[in-house]
């Protein structure tokens, strides 16, 4: 029979459950994945900051995605790596730290949606209204879009976690590699009906808003490209929009898998693996896909490496 501990401030993380033979390969994989995420995303931010030619709305808005990936992976992966080297009984975390980690993980996922939505708006203005692009997408608009992306995510996630922390807890085991909202409210023995209703509403609003904005903007962009005889415009639209669409599909596919598997307890191992990949895959691929597609970024990196002179040995 399960022992109940009411409102304990110390929780136990299940962590990543792997066999003894797989601990170190899994640890190395996660460690180098985290290192790769940090190096690529920080490098993108540095390149955009250093090159004045990249001080354009498209790249400045992309910085939000890199910042989100850095914060999300840093709040989750180092703790996960540390717990892998500990016995299961020693994988303890304070309740408040767990709440912060859950808030960060949901902010990470939500801002991915909102940032890609404002990036879609930027591409829509650039392709469908190019003559007014500079006037519309000025610095003030970029700041407004950035604040909106983070502000909407903050409010939605704040309410989500606020409904959870009001609950009394009678369990202490977090059945997940890291803390998230679902794992937290499952610690309660009270009714979580309101949490489920808001969680479902949260998901529907976020997915409907992001998918709707993407479909709407891309439909209008497609119409403009089909009716335009400007091959340069069509080529540019294809490159920039294909990159944005790939990033969006990676993010939404990863999120849908986790949300779906949360409804099927018998597939908990697959859900745990998916929740880790949700942090690693988008965070690793975003800077690569965006960086390799961008002609301006490739040009900057090429010039930077070519500028290095080889001094003759005297």
Automatic annotation (TrEMBL):
GO terms for molecular function: G protein-coupled receptor activity; odorant binding; olfactory receptor activity. It holds the Pfam family 7tm_4. It comes from the Eukaryota. This is Olfactory receptor, family 70, subfamily B, member 1. PROSITE patterns: G_PROTEIN_RECEP_F1_2. The chain crosses the membrane at residues 23-47, 142-165, 197-219, 240-261, 273-292. Residues 40-290 form the G-protein coupled receptors family 1 profile domain. Its main location: membrane. GO terms for cellular component: plasma membrane. The lineage of its organism: Eukaryota, Metazoa, Chordata, Craniata, Vertebrata. It is found in: Cell membrane. SUPFAM superfamilies: Family A G protein-coupled receptor-like. Keywords: Cell membrane, Disulfide bond, G-protein coupled receptor, Glycoprotein, Membrane, Olfaction, Receptor, Sensory transduction, Transducer, Transmembrane, Transmembrane helix. It is a multi-pass membrane protein. The keyword Ribonucleoprotein does not apply. InterPro entries: GPCR1_Superfamily_Member, GPCR_Rhodpsn, GPCR_Rhodpsn_7TM, Olfact_rcpt.
């Amino acid at each position: 029979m399960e022992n109940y501990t009411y409102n304990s401030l110390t929780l136990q993380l299940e962590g990543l459950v792997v066999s003894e033979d797989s601990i170190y390969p899994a640890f190395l994989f996660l460690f180098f994945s985290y290192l790769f995420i940090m190096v690529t995303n920080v490098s993108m931010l540095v390149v955009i900051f250093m090159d004045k030619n990249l001080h354009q709305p498209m790249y400045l808005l992309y910085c939000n995605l890199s910042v989100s990936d850095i914060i999300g992976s840093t709040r989750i992966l180092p703790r996960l790596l540390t717990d892998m080297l500990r016995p299961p009984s020693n994988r303890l975390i304070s309740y408040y730290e767990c709440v912060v980690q859950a808030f960060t993980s949901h902010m990470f996922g939500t801002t991915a949606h909102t940032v890609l939505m404002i990036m879609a708006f930027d591409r829509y203005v650039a392709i469908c209204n190019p003559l007014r692009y500079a006037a519309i997408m000025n610095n003030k608009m970029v700041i407004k879009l950035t604040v909106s992306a983070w502000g909407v995510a903050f409010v939605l996630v704040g309410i989500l976690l606020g409904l959870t922390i009001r609950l009394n807890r009678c369990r202490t085991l977090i059945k997940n590699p890291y803390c998230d909202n679902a794992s937290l409210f499952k610690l309660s023995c009270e009714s979580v009906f309101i949490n489920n209703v808001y969680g479902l509403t949260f998901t529907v609003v976020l997915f409907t808003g992001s998918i709707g904005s993407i479909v709407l903007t891309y439909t209008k962009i497609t119409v403009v490209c089909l009716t335009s005889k400007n091959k340069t415009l069509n080529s540019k639209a294809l490159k920039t929009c294909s990159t944005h669409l790939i990033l969006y599909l990676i993010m939404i596919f990863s999120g849908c898998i986790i949300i779906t598997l949360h409804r099927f307890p018998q597939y908990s191992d697959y859900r745990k693996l998916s929740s880790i990949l949700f942090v690693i895959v988008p965070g690793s691929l975003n800077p690569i896909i965006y960086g390799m597609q961008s002609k301006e970024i490739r040009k900057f990196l090429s010039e930077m490496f070519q500028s290095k002179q080889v001094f003759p040995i005297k």
